[in-house]
Specification:
By secondary structure, the chain is of the alpha+beta class. The protein has one domain: Cytochrome p450 (Orthogonal Bundle). 49% of the residues lie in helices and 10% in strands. The chain contains 15 helices and eleven strands. A six-stranded mixed beta sheet has the order 1-2-3-9-6-4. Strands 5-11-10 form a three-stranded antiparallel beta sheet.
Amino acid sequence: MTGQDQTIVHDVPVNVAQQPNPYPLFERIREHGVVQRVRLNPTLEVWMVTGYDEAVAALTDPRLSSSPVGVNGLEEEMAHQERTNVLMASMLVANGEDHTRLRNLVSKAFTARRVEQLAPRVQAHTDAFLDAVAARGSADLVSEFALPLPMAVLSDLIGIPAEGQPDFARLAVGLIMPPNTPERLAKGARARAELTEFFEPLIAQRKKEPKDDLLSALCAAQAEERISDRELTAMTILLTLAGHETTASLIANGVHALLRHPEQFATLRDDPSLLPGAIEELLRYEGPVSRGVARFTTDPYEIGGVTVPAGEMIIIGLAAANRDPARYDRPDILDVARREVPQQLAFGHGVHFCLGAPLARAEARIAIGTLLRRFPDLRLADPDADLSRREGILRGMATLPVTFTPEA
């Protein structure tokens, strides 16, 4: 690796998550230094962190803000977002005490004990979706499995009635549009507005008739003035965004990676005890967050030998850090039996570490483990096909056609 080179501005296209292999781009950027200036669009240049150690440091440093308010060149856009985007009231962009308060309201739903209690429901949903395709001997593992499974689990957790789940799933998809065109901005705004309207009668009902679900718990907190109306709406939308697409992408990306590496598929199929570690390796190798997560400087900030001025955006490249050769041996090799490696960063790190990580891990472990057990000869329907990625800010498969020996 060469020293820091700040004379180059690297282009990181908005559709990097849809590229067949974005990792050589991240490696080329890292060759000039672990903190580099990058161009996200013709009018927006930011800083990108591609080193593992530097990413961990940035994710745990309280001097970096999660809120974009006050960033140079984004004042007008941020004022608009504050008025129109309810997610600006979520813990995603909250700092300090507000972040702690909001996170504590939902943390009990994702404890190890609660996830263990949910595991039988995850298994039941998994079996039901696979039962529906088992006799056919073929399936699209995205539309028929990876997408509906986390939606069913999320519906159980939040408390979405069965009759409302199709609309819930449809609206959730619109939340992941990259905000790079007026049309996509409008689509994302419509999805948030429609999802708000979707939750309004459910919230009203739970306030009158509480149940044993997360939405009822949030309504109780709102009644005690521990969360505002806007924050309650933001929380429901954030849970939808974080609990559906990310897990769906984890499952689909993981299965696709295994099918592209038959020896790894066979190793995991023949030794299910490797599953917990294999899920971590799949997250490292092909996680749902490709470009990274944003943090913002309120004062000059030194990282990786570079001083970033105040009022700047820093993209912490989770996917890039997960393939940093300074931290991982043969980082571009998928190895489901890796041992004693640094924790992968697909779920982030520090106080903003993904709250739903235990549930996502459990869903992926159950989903992929059941697939391997029931369909031991699972294979790509067309090994030579160039499968497309889902449109959006996350890295996920648009389709994953597979075949297998039908169950009698």
